[in-house]
Amino acid sequence: MANFHLRAPLSRRTFLRGAGTALALPWLEAMLPRAAFARGIFSAPAPRRFAFLFAPNGKRMDLWTPAAEGEAFELTALLEPLAPFKRQLLVLTGLAHRHANANGDGPGDHARAAACFLTGVQARKTEGANLRNGVSVDQLLAERLGLETRLPSLELGTEPALTSGNCDSGYSCAYSCNVSWQSPSTPVLKEVDPRQVFERLFGSDDATPQERARRLALRKSILDAAGDDAQRLRARLGATDRRKVDEYLESVRALEREIEKSEAAGPVAPPLARPVAGIPRDLGDHLRLLSDLLVAAWQADLTRVASFMFANDGSNRSFPFLGVPDGHHETSHHGGDPGKLEKLAKINRFHVEQLAYLLLKLAAANDGDGSLLDHALVTYGCGISDGNAHNHDHLPIVVAGGGGLSTGRHVRFDGDPPLCNLFLALLECGGVRRASFGDSTGRLAGI
Questions:
Q1: How many domains would you assign to the chain?
Q2: Helices marked H in 78-158 — which ranges?
Q3: What's the confidence (pLDDT) of residue 31?
Q4: Highest mean pLDDT among 193-202, 263-272, 415-424
Q5: Residues 374 and 327 reside in one and the same domain
Q6: If you average pLDDT over every residue of the chain, what do you get?
Q7: If DSSP states are collapsed to H, E and C, what string results for 96-118?
Q8: What does the buried/exposed string (b/e) look like for 173-189 if buried means 16 or more CB atoms within 10 Å of the residue's CB?
Q9: Would you give the DSSP letter of residue 130?
């Protein structure tokens, strides 16, 4: 039986501290008020969490879109990796981003697709510093939900968050390399280096660079640094909580080992802007390690909002491990060629497999009266549907989780309603009430 009821409740903001370390804890029974424990209540209401995952260059829409609507839909070839989560999926067909269209601005669909993806705003065509976009949906959620967490939001990606230069037909690289925007002129730059993410999550805010460098040089685990605090904590926990803490600390240590293994392998070559030692050489390992860090951040309630770019829009990364030595962007311009279409399907499915991995990890993570997935809404999609046509209607969008929507369905919409209508609904789920967002025409009905 838990023994915490003999003591004052543990603060949800408890950190295990050491040299350059501030290790937050997952939810524990010891954090409940004594009165709740006396009434037999062993879990507190879990907070709602949101993640927005972006994949570039469109999909094979013929292999993406389910034929049937409603609960009777069958998962298509590209959606099949999500089979374990079918009852927690909402597949949405027919949504559009009209402000990703040219609308008189000429070429630059990849830049507009990424810039518009979470804002619904027509980006100003410039390769200079006079950027103009909109505030993204994740940042509006972070404004509210971030008041209760150490980090307002977490931005992740596998390719660099460039802020200048011409990346697409006169559009600044800031547009095609970022989906999260704090203000119309300021993107929230994503982090691609797992070590930097790890230190941001578990390193102390007041640690000096010298303290962190010394710990890393000595290969001293962040858990070793917080060891004394961890021992004191165990002494005031019951058996159930001790087990939770031990499992959580071991998962953090496993993350640390994976990062150390990548660092030992040496710097990774482009497409990164600069060689980085902490990035896994295998793209799948990189994506999964970043997913693991996101799960750890949610477990410890360090943040409740995240964005994750699987790649920048227009990315021409090759996938030799899939039998696709050609660049992704080049392959997406298939022109109906059967060989290119087959290769594009492999890339598309690989990206969906990474989504499935994240959902699996979230479903396995305890979060009070359910799992992290039960209390989250994870939105995955592209700002382009068919990469060959560069069209921005009938976008491939999936929402997964249990955070307030009616899932387990495929819903088809007529008339190209704005994707921002979905975002208006997600904002409402996060407690953010707005009359409009981006180019919305109202809250998306039927979800």
A1: 2
A2: 109-117, 137-145
A3: 80
A4: 415-424
A5: yes
A6: 91
A7: ECHHHCCCCCCCCHHHHHHHHHC
A8: bbbbbbbbbbeeebbbb
A9: -
